[in-house]
Amino acid sequence: MKRRKFLKSLLALLGSTTLISFAYPLVRFVAPPSRKSEVKRLSLQKNEIPSGEAREVVLNNTPAIIINRPGKGYIALSKVCTHLGCLVEYNKAKGELICPCHAGVFSLDGKVLSGPPPKPLSEFPLRVEGETILIG
Amino acid sequence: MWQRIKNGLEVRIGLEDLINTKLKNYTVPRNTNIFYTLGGVALVAFIIQAISGFFLLIYYVPHSEHAFRSVQYIMTVAPFGWLFRLMHVVGSNLLVAVIFLHMLSVFFMGSYKKPRELTWIVGWLMLLVTLTFCLSGYLLPWSQLSYWTTTVVTAMPTAFPYVGDYIANLLRGGEFVSGITLNRFFALHVAFLPPLLVGLMVIHVFLIRRIGLSSPPFDESAEEARPWTEYRHVSYPNGNSFYPYFVLKELYMVALYLVVMFFVITFLPTLFLPEASNIPANPLRTPAYIKPQWYFLAPYQMLKLIPNKFLGISMQIALIGTFLLWPFFDTKKERNILKRPLLLATFTASLLLWVVLTMWGRSS
After folding, report:
1. Complex ipTM above 0.90?
2. Are B261 and B91 spatial neighbours (Cβ–Cβ below 8 Å)?
3. Chain B residues whose beta carbon lies within 8 Å of the beta carbon of residue A31
4. Cα Rg for chain A, rounded, in angstroms?
5. Residue B294 and residue B37: Cα distance in Å, rounded?
6. Architecture (CATH level 2) of domain B2-226+235-295
7. Is the predicted pLDDT of residue B221 greater than 60, yes or no?
8. Which residues of B make CB contacts under 8 Å with A?
9. CA neighbor of A104 nearest in space, from A116, A120, A94
10. d(CA B165, CA B222)
11. pLDDT for A47-98, tens place per residue?
12. What are phi and psi of B89, to 5 degrees?
């Protein structure tokens, strides 16, 4: 191999190695930092949410809503619309959860009734023990 | 004094020769119309954005707890802060409008055709960078409007399987829009995007000067009939000189641009600042009737109408790709759109569709 060609190859090798060696730290640098959840579990008293009413909480860093559905009991749903991440609002009169951004409509079970959301609202585990509602 | 400076420059850099070769002897077609000035107007509009942005940086605090208050301070306390903020806000909207008009006129006059495909592509990339500027700047005031618009936009990549969530989280710096997102968008807005746009501008202007300005296709005599098989510079020996003829034309249009800008600032100051832009961001409440800026209303309405998220977003990406690579799809030599009824019909229909979707998005 001629000296000039060798030097060219060496420069290409060193240059690409330098570039590649920066790739990993760069990816790590811009990756989202891990965030600890402040509230993983929550307990409420049954009388805090009368029938037909709802209560908004933040659970596992996610805005959530606990609804006391008439005749069907309590349910804890994420408020984050599965379409593009806006927060759904509880419409008591219609008995629906409505997303104000792209008009997605969900039932009180979290199922999609109309609009562009691709999947139901995610549900948090919930159980009732005596007069206490345990969520998460 | 002025003469001494001129003489000094003449001796050192050959000023007169520079002015003659680059400005006076550089000719443009005789039949150029006002639409030819829109690129120059966009350049001046961008410079206004940069200067007003530099001044806003003096008071703006890029932190989720202070950003909204610092913007309110600029608007209500800082002397003439309202002027620089409104120039920046109104200017960004007008800049997008000017670029849209520029691209429409380039399309209408067939100026994207061989040998100017690269100029068109770089122009499109500049439009995309400008829209990214708008999006990243939109979050900075940390208002309800900023917060929720950014939430929707950064959620768009989630339509794509496997990598979508990772990309969305990378953009936001977490699962939701937060102070980390604000920092990222601030860095993007003031540090990453400006050199990128300036770089693209340099390439765009270089290509225009290197290839030569295209002539309007409606005058047959102005167009060269020879096929493009090798590089050659398009020149117009009987054309008008770039300076003073074309520069003055540009300056008239820049003056018109400033008239429109200051008319909006004076008589319609809230045109681009709806109510939700005056409410601090609340990550726990999406406001009703939130709408993006006018230039995103058409894609916003499309997303509303198409029931499948993946399909809706893929269609928008496909549309962008089609327009970006349009010169390679439309390879017919005829530049005059009036002689191509199918292209004219498609162009008019697309434009009408965009207007209808925009109006629909605004009213729905």
Report:
1. no
2. yes
3. 170
4. 25
5. 24
6. Up-down Bundle (1.20)
7. no
8. 148, 151-152, 154-156, 158, 169-170, 172-176, 180, 283-290, 300, 303-304, 306-310, 312
9. A116
10. 53
11. 899 989 999 999 888 999 999 998 899 999 999 999 889 999 999 999 999 9
12. -70, -50
**In Å, how far are A14, A61, B103 from B251, measured between CA atoms?**
50, 54, 20
A89–chain B nearest CA distance, Å: 8
What per-residue confidence (pLDDT) applies to B260? 97
Q: What is the mean pLDDT of residues B344-360?
A: 95
Contact (Cβ atoms closer than 8 angstroms) between residue B105 and residue B38 = yes
Q: Which residue of A has its CA nearest to B284?
A: A63
What is the model's pLDDT at position B220? 59
User: Can you state the angle between helices B341-363 and B297-305, rounded to 10 degrees?
Assistant: 80
Sign of the CA dihedral running B233, B234, B240, B242: negative
Torsion, Cα B6 B8 B13 B17, to 10 degrees, reads: 40
B253, amino acid identity: M
- The larger pLDDT score, comparing residue B18 to residue B308, is at B18
Question: Which residue type is seen at A60?
Answer: N
Determine contact, residues A99/B290, Cβ cutoff 8 Å. Answer: no
- Model's pTM, two decimal places? 0.88
Asked if B284 lies within 8 A of A100 by C-beta distance, the reply is: no
Cα A123 to the center of its chain, rounded Å: 11
